[in-house]
Amino acid sequence: MFNRLLLTGPLVFVLTLVVPAHADTIYSTVLLGSNEVPPTGSPGTGVGVFTLSGNMLTIAETFTGLTAPANAAHLHCCGPVGVNEIVAVPFTPFPNATAGAFNTTVDLSLAGTYTAAFIAQEGGTVGLAEAGLIAALNSGNAYANIHDANFPAGEIRGQITQVTPEPASLLLLGTGLIATVQVLRRRIRA
Question: In sequence order, what DSSP letters do the residues of 2-29 get, joined into one string?
Fold first, then answer.
């Protein structure tokens, strides 16, 4: 009995270090003028990282090189690459600048997070809006863009995709844990 405890104790400890207690879902995008519909030819660029943790969505976006100060930015939902969609989540207050950073966390369970048009489009309730947005994020059917006076329909845009762990990393982790268990078993039996 003591030998099994000796074997399982370290394994459980290692697993608590490598497996998060609750996993966040991370999404990212690269915003470019060539991603707009139609393309803008803008020299502007941007990067967005979106982290979903329960009902909370953390938005971190940086941008540079816009041809005019930004006057709006948001998440649009719910369509594939190349399709213009309505605003789902406005980014407020977004920097009125040609370069900058925007960071905020929004609660997807609150009506104030969304536009009224998006709630209506998704069936009229906040719960349906949240489910629709999360489904769109998971399937790559949402995008972020930044608007300004020169490009009122959007100067730079990026389709949002889920960041997934590399399968080889997971395989390597699993193989390492199995090898550790085998070594410990041999040592206990010896």
Answer: HHHHHHHHHHHHHHHHHS-SS--EEEEE
